[in-house]
Amino acid sequence: MAQGWNPGGTSFWKDVWLRLEKNKPAMFGLVVVIIFSAVAIIAPLLSPADPLKTDLSNRLKPPGSPSEICSNGVYILGSDEFGRDILSRILFGARVSLSVGIISQVLVTAIGVTMGALAGYYGGKVDMIIMRIADILFAFPDLLFYIGVMFALGPSIYNVFIALALIGWAGMARLVRSQVLYLREMEYVEAARAQGLSDARIILRHILPNCMGPIIVSVTMGIPGAILAEASLSFLGLGVQPPTPSWGNMIYAARSYMLTNPWYSVWPGIAIMITVFSFNLLGDGLRDALDPRLKR
């Protein structure tokens, strides 16, 4: 294969892991992502209270205040305007944010890789049609496009998945197309054609495996963007709807109390910042580790 780039071999992935291990910021990001993912999965076990349970007699309490609804008897991070435990809502909100980031990127990858592979492999009219559609999507500011889709479909987490996938696939398609345009001219692809292999088999077995590095990096870098987009839509009231906890709609609800109760908006903001920062560190590290030009 081209320049020793063999993503199918175990030695390649071993080299990737060894390079990633040496990148301390990337490993820090990986550890934080794993921790947040684990927290999202076991949120019911970690949460000191039901995130939907209200206690109006203890609304907007500061961190450390006594609580009747928390199992430990304390609002560790304070309470919101309905007396709900902020820590519990942040823990359950991690489920929403991470699921939006991951599921939307799965959809983006499925659509983008398919369209990019078809455009790059066949070229001609197929390439022109797909890329012109992508150019149209690139002409819209992302947030305005998301808002338009959410107005058309209505606010819900499932429609957030659709909105993010509808515009996100264009970038993935352009990335995969550029890779396929180069790889389709390689000798091993010509040899596969000479053996009479079908186009689908050539694309799936011989071309796309060699695109995995850029795709993995793109997905990793796309997850924090999706998390921020969901937070923005929820802040505007177009994403996840109350009372379901979401970091974005928690900040939206806290906007009226930023001066009197600043901790209300600070905690979900910190959660978003740490998650996005960690995914960005991991993405940067994966980009460096998967770059074949770094191989000795």
UniProtKB/TrEMBL annotation:
InterPro entries: BP-dependent_transpt_permease, MetI-like, MetI-like_sf, OppC_N
Compartments, as annotated in UniProt: Cell membrane
Pfam family of the protein (one): BPD_transp_1
GO BP annotations, alphabetical order: transmembrane transport
Keywords: Cell membrane, Membrane, Transmembrane, Transmembrane helix, Transport
Domain ABC transmembrane type-1: 94-283
Domain of life: Bacteria
GO cellular-component term (any): plasma membrane
UniProt protein name: Peptide/nickel transport system permease protein/oligopeptide transport system permease protein
Organism listed in the record: Thermosediminibacter litoriperuensis
